TrEMBL record:
This is PglD N-terminal domain-containing protein. Residues 5-83 form the PglD N-terminal domain. It comes from Acinetobacter indicus CIP 110367. Belongs to the transferase hexapeptide repeat family. The lineage of its organism: Bacteria, Pseudomonadati, Pseudomonadota, Gammaproteobacteria, Moraxellales. CDD domains: LbH_AT_putative. The record marks 139 as: Increases basicity of active site His. Coiled coil: none annotated.
Length: 216
């Protein structure tokens, strides 16, 4: 039985995630939920205590669990390793109005915000973030530590590799079963971009149609 839940990240996104955690665990009291922040965010936020990670660990003999509300995927991975070493449970947080249809696999540590839709025959890796009003359509494969900002439209037969970041309102064109559209590892799709072809690893694409942002 979980005794304390921590939302790692006392930021704007963390403030949106905390009510989802409260909604998912209605039998816990408000004081059993805390924010975790290592940058000195203060002692209280929206009526919840803000603790350093070290102070969170000091709660003795308690079953603790954490969701990581931080968009930076590299930071998420680093924190995941810390939590695993300290034997802290990773939470999957899911808004009550999330739609999940048939044959959907989701790895540990996922965070699905309100109005997220995952249709059918989808495989998603660990520590996936889907912000509000995002969807993933049929036959998509999404790697680990992928981040969707609000309103991402991920259509069918798309493969998104680890640590990719998809910006607010981006639209990714549907691929085909024999030739899925691929977003490479660590790629960034800019806000409002319309992606009509595969994106190489590690690049940033912007615009409509999306093109690689050249470094000056």
């Amino acid at each position: 039985m979980i005794s304390y839940i921590g939302v790692y990240g006392a930021s704007g996104f963390g403030k949106e995630v905390m009510p989802l955690a409260r909604q998912q665990y209605p039998t816990l009291e408000k004081q059993q939920f805390v924010f975790i922040d290592d940058s000195g965010a203060g002692t209280s936020l929206n009526g919840y205590q803000v603790l350093s990670y070290e102070d969170f660990l000091k709660y003795p003999d308690q079953k603790k669990a954490v969701t990581i509300a931080i968009a930076n995927s590299q930071v998420r991975e680093k924190l995941m390793k810390r939590l695993t070493e300290d034997q802290i449970q990773h939470l999957n947080i899911q808004a009550s109005n999330t739609v999940i249809l048939d044959e959907v696999q989701i790895g540990e540590g996922s965070l699905l915000c309100p109005f997220t839709c995952l249709t059918s025959n989808i495989k998603i890796g660990k520590f996936f973030h889907a912000n509000i009003y995002s969807y993933v359509a049929h036959d998509c494969v999404i790697g680990d530590y992928v981040t969707f900002a609000p309103g991402v439209k991920c259509n069918g037969n798309i493969h998104i590799h680890d640590h990719a970041y998809i910006g607010t309102g981006a639209v990714i064109k549907q691929g085909t079963p024999d030739q899925p559209l691929v977003i490479g590892k660590g790629a960034v799709v800019g806000m409002g971009a319309v992606v009509t072809k595969s994106v190489p690893p590690g690049v940033t694409v912007i615009g409509n149609p999306a093109r690689i942002l050249e470094k000056k």
